[in-house]
Amino acid sequence: MAETRRGLLTSYLLSNSPIYATAIGFLIMSNIVNAAFPKTLGRFTDDLQKGGMTPATIEHYGLLLLAIGVTYGLLFGLGQFTVARLGRHFEFVTRQKLFAHFTKLSEHYFSQHGIGKLLSYVMNDVTSVRESISNGVNQTTNAVFLILSCIVMMSFSSIPFYLIAICVLPLLAIPFIVVRFGPVIRGRSLKVQESLASMTESAEEQFGGIRVTKTFAAEDMAMRRFGEKVDAIRDNQLRLVKVSSFFQALLPFLGALSLVLAIIVGGTLTATHRITLGSFVELTLYLRMIMTPLQQIGNVINMMQRSRASLERINALLAQKPDIVSASEAEPLPEGPLGVRVRGLTFRYPGATEPALRDISFDIEPGQTVAIVGKTGSGKTTLVKLLLRVYDPPRGTIRVGGRDIADITLDSLRRRIAYVPQDGFLFSTTIRDNIAFSDARQSSGKWSRRRSRRKSRPASRACRSSSTRVSASAALRCPADSGSAQAWRGASSNGRRSSSSTTASAPSTP
In sequence order, which residues have a C-beta less than 8 Å from that of residue 267 and are 6 or more positions away? Predict the structure, then answer.
């Protein structure tokens, strides 16, 4: 709950703040060391101009520059590696959280959001945020502290203060530019992410329905629909690139303008001997060093605005509350055979104008099997989903073991019912794991023995023991005998009737 209030990224940064502080400390020290490079070259230039260079002096400056380079490389490498590793860990943790959150959301949410859109959260949005906290922290720390280090070093040098002020003056426009362009980039980035999600969803639909598309020779229409989604991405990306490219080019331009002023004004002062040649070299090198951080600041702001749109989408998803949850006072079902009682059940899907079920009532005693027959769309599957609490029925309409299903924990209710949907699905794993999907704790030996017994059972006996009484779109078999198998069994229509059916019986011990 606290994480939801603070936000995903804030919670992650706070939980890893000591490591981030260490990494940022390495980056700060590396930039302070790097800022000593122009000052060292400036002193070398002054000594060279005075003609006091000896082999020992050259060796001294050479070793000093080598030490600056090695120290900067080690500190910068450690800081950058640590931040990048934390970014990858954020990506791993966030994708786990998203998948765990998906498992808690109700079927109603998935009916309104396609698989492609959900995948865009896991792939595009998470990657965008990860890049921002990896490259963003590195580049922001480098840019800010390198600029500050350069300004401080220039202040303590022999460069006149008014010359520093003239050269830095164009940089003062940066905050105003950021305030102007930031919201525009963020808004257009949000549209790009939404169009990517729409394209992914469209691709998932096209691949899923490829057989229908080919059967009706609708390839041209499918290509046209998908092409419209791709064109929307192109248009939104171009609108974003126009703004972000101009913004990224504007900041280095201000840095180049500062360098031009330094060369014109500083060169004039050097020619008139008002400053030394070494001071002029220092000034130009410092301003040249500042240009790279300015470009990094442009990249970071651009990246942050894009990732902010992705982060808002992820936080909005994680803020979604499941429609179906166990009540705080809910209790698990007791062991043993239990009956099912339905009284006056009327149910309407969210957003529907007509009820899918109207005034349904029946009783199923322990060990009893009941077949519910009806034409396609009559509500048989809806009834099954209500028994499983995929959707919440009106309170008091469905009771299991004499208790309202709203007062039963979801886990215990669904573990006592085996469900086989009309459309079969196999996970990308072994057959044994697919069979044992509802109870992964089953040992391999137990499943092997069960499979061997089923192979040796005569086909006629297997047919006689089946619980499916009529052609069914879904059927429940939960007999009182705890040694019998429980299963929702799907069967196709026998072709002689236009109706289908559901067979149900009371839950028993698994």
Answer: 280
The whole-number pLDDT of residue 19 equals 92
Q: Beta-carbon neighbour count of residue 174 at 10 Å?
A: 17
Lowest-pLDDT range of 214-218, 385-389, 495-499: 495-499
Instruction: Show Cβ contacts of residue 31 under 8 Å, excluding neighbours closer than 6 positions.
Output: 76, 141, 142, 145, 146, 149
What total number of domains does the chain contain?
A: 2
How far apart CA 491 and CA 502 sit, in angstroms, is 10
The identity of residue 103, as a single letter, is T
Q: Where are the beta strands (DSSP E) in 76-204?
A: none
Asked whether residue 158 falls in the same domain as residue 69, the answer is: yes
Contacts of 119 (CB under 8 A, 6+ apart): 200, 204
The whole-angstrom separation of Cα 384 and Cα 503 is 10
Tokens representing 450?
Answer: 């069960």
In a domain, 92, yes or no: yes
User: Cα-flanking dihedrals φ and ψ of residue 350, to 5°?
Assistant: -55, 125
pLDDT per position as a tens digit, 419-477: 777 777 777 777 777 777 766 555 455 555 665 555 555 443 333 333 333 333 344 44
CB-based contact 294:252 (threshold 8 Å): yes
- Cα separation, 59 vs 65, in Å, equals 10
Task: Give the integer Cα–Cα distance in Å for 150 and 136.
Answer: 21
Tokens 């099912």 belong to 340
**Reported pTM:** 0.61
* CA-closest candidate to residue 432, choices 415, 413, 450: 450
Provide the domain limits for residue 372: 340-505
139: in domain: yes
- Biggest CA–CA distance in the chain, Å, is 111
Give the range among 88-102, 409-423, 451-465 with minimum mean pLDDT: 451-465
